[in-house]
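Fill in residues.
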């Protein structure tokens, strides 16, 4: 754990609650709490520190792009109920969880999306104030729309690209780079390819 401001006892409770979600949700593999700007806050033990950092960057990028879509094509608020990326070998779900924090869950392809969403919502309510996390670079009070600005979305996508690029430089990096420059049309391809590369089950 790095720079979260959450004590060990609270960390243990967060981990315990997230492990409970995995136990109640058939097909769920990993759960992670992250800050809005991609800082890992808490993870389930099956997820290594390196892969948790990688997942945090990917989830922050997807969530930022979803917020941008909400601004441009939704009600303009930037609010996102659930962001989801389906890829070969699994599904990534992301929900808002307190001020400046997100909850991400990786599941098998066969997992019941309705049950996953329900259990994630219950977990967010249980965690309450523990999931409130200020970003490392807070949005300026004079520019409240910065969090959903297209430039911010591209920057978040770049974070995800850097985290996952070393695993598949020829494939994932190029795809994520395309998302940063071509916009919404490439979002599905970019997030799906990168998430699949980084999060698909490893074979021995």
């Amino acid at each position: 754990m790095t720079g979260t401001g959450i004590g060990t006892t609270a960390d243990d409770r967060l981990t315990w609650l997230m492990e409970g979600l995995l136990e109640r949700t058939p097909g769920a593999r990993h759960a992670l709490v992250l800050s809005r700007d991609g800082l890992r806050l808490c993870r389930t033990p099956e997820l290594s520190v390196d892969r948790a950092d990688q997942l945090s960057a990917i989830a922050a990028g997807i969530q930022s792009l979803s917020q941008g879509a909400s601004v441009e094509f939704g009600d303009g608020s930037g609010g996102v109920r659930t962001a989801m990326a389906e890829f070969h070998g699994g599904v990534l779900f992301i929900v808002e969880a307190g001020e400046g924090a997100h909850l991400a869950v990786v599941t098998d392809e066969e997992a019941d999306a309705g049950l996953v969403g329900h259990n994630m919502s219950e977990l967010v309510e249980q965690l309450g104030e523990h999931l409130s996390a200020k970003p490392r670079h807070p949005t300026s009070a004079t520019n409240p729309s910065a969090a959903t600005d297209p430039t911010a979305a591209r920057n978040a996508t770049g974070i995800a690209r850097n985290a996952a690029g070393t695993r598949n430089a020829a494939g994932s990096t190029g795809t994520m780079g395309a998302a940063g420059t071509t916009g919404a049309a490439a979002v599905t391809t970019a997030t799906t390819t990168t998430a699949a590369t980084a999060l698909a089950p490893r074979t021995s």
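Helices lie at 8-24, 49-73, 113-127, 150-165, 172-182, 187-199.
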